[in-house]
Amino acid sequence: ETAVFQTPNYHVTQVGNEVSFNCKQTLGHDTMYWYKQDSKKLLKIMFSYNNKQLIVNETVPRRFSPQSSDKAHLNLRIKSVEPEDSAVYLCASSTDISGNTLYFGEGSRLIVV
Amino acid sequence: GEKVEQHESTLSVREGDSAVINCTYTDTASSYFPWYKQEAGKSLHFVIDIRSNVDRKQSQRLTVLLDKKAKRFSLHITATQPEDSAIYFCAASGQGTGSKLSFGKGAKLTVSP
User: Fold this and answer.
1) Which of A77, A108, B64, B109 has a CB 3.0–4.6 Å from the CB of B50, allowing a cystine?
2) How confident is the model at residue A36 (pLDDT cuts 50, 70, 90)?
3) Closest to A43 (Cβ–Cβ): which among B49, B99, B103?
4) Which of A105, A75, A101 is nearest to A88 (CA)?
5) Is the sign of the CA dihedral B33, B17, A39, A71 positive or negative?
6) Does A72 touch chain B (CB under 8 A)?
C-alpha cells in the first residue's frame, strides 16, 4: 500500500534543462528524504528534512535544491541537468530522525540525453 | 562516515533452500541495522531490522544476526520461495545522526522453483 507518492514516475530531458520531482507522504511522518539510486543500484542519501528543516545535506552539486512547504511534502529541483544525473530518485519518509523505518516512494526515473 | 560492505552480489538458491546475505560495517558507533527488499522494477520496502542491544531477531522466515565484535550482520531466509527473489540491501546508522542510513550495494537473490 503506497503512502509516499512521487511524480513524475519517468522523465526524459536534454542536458541543460531544469527538472522538478515532487513527493508527498500521507503517513503523518516528520522526516522526509531524497535518495539517488544509480544504474548499478547504489543508493546514496542526498537530503533529509525534519519538519520542513534541512537536517542532512550530503555533498551534492549545487544544481540540486530541495524544497519543503510542509512536513508532508519534499520536492527536488535540478537546474541544468547533466548526463550523470540520470538515475532513479527515491523519496522516503520516517516517523522521526532517530533512524527508524524508511517508507519509500516508487521512484522517479530521470534520463538525461 | 559509515561504510557498509555487502559481500555477495548475487546468489541463487532452489525453492525451499536457505539463503544468507552478509554485510559488514565500519563505524563502531552504528547501532541500527535494517534490511530492505527491492523487487524488479519496484521501490524498496523494509523487511526486518536489528538494533545493537540484541544479537538476534527473527520474524517468520527471516532472521537477522548481529556480531558487534566483528562488525558483521547477516540476513537468513529459510524455506525460500520464488517471491523472495529480489535485491536485498543492508544498511547501518548510528543514533542521533539524522537517520543517515548508509546502504550496502545490494545482493540479488534468485529463487528458482
Assistant:
1) B64
2) very high
3) B103
4) A105
5) negative
6) no
Query: What sign does the dihedral B49-B90-A58-A102 (CA atoms) show?
Result: negative
In eight-state DSSP terms, residue A59 is S
Q: What is the pLDDT of residues B1-57, one digit of tens each?
A: 788 999 889 999 999 999 999 999 999 989 999 999 999 989 999 999 999 999 999
Contact B93, A56 (CB under 8 A): no
Confidence of residue A113 (pLDDT cuts 50, 70, 90): very high
Residues of B (54-113) whose Cβ lies below 8 Å from A: 87, 89, 93-101, 103, 105-106
- Per-residue pLDDT of B43-57, as tens digits, reads 999 999 999 999 999
> What is the least distance, in Å, from the CA of B4 to any CA of chain A?
11
In this structure, the strands spanning B107-112 and B10-14 are: parallel
Work out the minimum CA distance from B35 to partner chain A, whole angstroms: 10
Q: CB distance from B3 to chain A under 8 Å?
A: no
**Using CA atoms, how far apart are residues B15 and B80, in angstroms rounded to an integer?**
5
Contact between A88 and A26 (Cβ < 8 Å): no
Kindly report the length of chain A.
113
> Rounded CA gap, A90 and A79, in Å?
18
